[in-house]
Amino acid sequence: LLIEAKDEISSANDMASLNNIRIKYLGKKGLVTLEMKKLKKLPQEEKPKFGAVINKVRNEIEKLLNEKMEEIRKNEKIKKFEKIRVDVTLPGAKRDKGHLHILTKVQRELEDIFISMGFEVVEGPEVEDTWHNFDALNTPEWHPARDAQDSFYFDEKTLLRTHTSPIQIRTMLEKKPPLAIISPGRVFRRDYDSTHLPMFTQMEGLYVDKNVTVRHLKYTLEEMARRVFGESAKVRLKPSFFPFTEPSYEVDVWFQGNWLEILGAGMVDPNVFRNVGYDPETWSGFAFGLGLERIAMVKYGIKDIRDFIRNDVRFLENY
Ligand code: FA5
C-alpha cells in the first residue's frame, strides 16, 4: 500500500491530483482507513502490532502528501514569477535622441568664429518698416528691390524684412562707433526654387572704425572661410552692386574644386552713415550678408535648399 501511494504521489504534479490521492488513501472510505477498520476484527494479541504498522503507513503517506504539496506550491510560484520575469541583462530599447538642426549648428559655428574675432551678436525684428529695410539703406522708392513682387508687405510701410541689413541701421542709431556686430536672423522674399527659399537665414556683419579698408573685409571673410571650410578655402571678391555699399562685392568661396557664391558685401556707403548721423569723413566700415543655408549647402554638399524645411527625418539624421 505504501509503495503504491509513494509512486502515485511522486508522479502527481498538481494540487487536484494530489487531493484525489489523499481521498483514495486517507479519506473516509480510503484504502488506509479501510485497513484501520479491519483492526477491530483481529484477535486481541495481533491488534497492537497491526495497529502500529497501519499507523506508520498512514503517517508516512500524510508526510509524503504534505511534502509534495509544498513542492507543487513552490513550482507554481516559480512559474508565476517566470511569466513576469524581466531580464535585466537584455540591451535596452533604443530611443532616438534629438539633436540640433543643421542650420542651428552652422549658425552657432559662425557665431563662435566671429565672436572670437571680436564681433558682438545683435538681433532685430522680423517685421520691419520700409525706412529701416530700404530708405536708410540708401534704397530709394523707385528701386526694384522694393517691388511688391519681391517682398511680403503688410501695408505700404510695413513688411517682413527682406534681409538682415536693417539691423545695421538699428545698431548704428543706438551705438557710437567703433563697433563690430553680427546679426543672424530669418528673412523673407517671394522666391522659391531649388536654391531659393521664401524664408531663409542670413547673418549680417558690420564693422565701423577709422581707416577701415577692403583688406579688412577680405581678411575677415578669409578667416571665416578657413575656419568653416578648412585651411585650403579661398575667397574671391567679384564686383557687384548694393545701394548701401560702395564698392560692393559678391563673394565666392573656393571649396572642393568650385567657386561658390555665399554672400554679398562691401564698404558702407557714405549715405548710410549720414542717415544714422555718423560723419563719413571720420568713419569708415565694411558690411556683409551671408546666406546660412548656402554655407551649409556648400559645406555638406546639399543639392536642394528645400531639404532644410521639409523636416524629413532621413535628411535631418544625416547632419
Ligand atoms: C543681401 O541680402 C544684402 N543685404 C547682403 C549685403 C549685406 C551686402 C551687407 C552688402 C552689405 P543678397 O540678396 O545677395 O544680398 O543675399 C545675400 C545672400 O543671401 C546670398 O548670397 C545668398 O547666399 C542668400 N540668399 C539670397 N536669396 C536667397 C533665397 N531666396 N534663399 C536662400 N538664400 C538666399
TrEMBL record:
Cofactor remark: Binds 2 magnesium ions per tetramer.
InterPro entries: aa-tRNA-synth_II, aa-tRNA-synth_II/BPL/LPL, Phe-tRNA-synth_IIc_asu, Phe-tRNA_ligase_II_N, Phe_tRNA_ligase_alpha1_bac, Phenylalanyl-tRNA_Synthase, tRNA-bd_arm
Organismal lineage: Bacteria, Thermotogati, Thermotogota, Thermotogae, Thermotogales
Chain sites annotated for binding Mg(2+): E246
Membrane-spanning intervals of the chain: none
Catalytic activity: tRNA(Phe) + L-phenylalanine + ATP = L-phenylalanyl-tRNA(Phe) + AMP + diphosphate + H(+)
Keywords attached to this entry: Aminoacyl-tRNA synthetase, ATP-binding, Cytoplasm, Ligase, Magnesium, Metal-binding, Nucleotide-binding, Protein biosynthesis
Cellular location(s): Cytoplasm
Recorded GO MF terms: phenylalanine-tRNA ligase activity
Similarity-based family: Belongs to the class-II aminoacyl-tRNA synthetase family. Phe-tRNA synthetase alpha subunit type 1 subfamily.
DNA repair listed as a keyword: no
Coiled-coil regions listed: none
Protein's name in the database: Phenylalanine--tRNA ligase alpha subunit
Encoding gene per record: pheS
Domain Aminoacyl-transfer RNA synthetases class-II family profile: 100-298
SUPFAM superfamilies referenced in this protein's UniProt entry, alphabetically: Class II aaRS and biotin synthetases, tRNA-binding arm
Source domain of life: Bacteria
PROSITE patterns: AA_TRNA_LIGASE_II (PS50862)
Group of enzyme by EC: ligase
EC number per UniProt: 6.1.1.20
Keyword match Ligase: yes
Source organism of the structure: Thermosipho affectus
Cofactor: Mg(2+)
Record's subunit section: Tetramer of two alpha and two beta subunits.
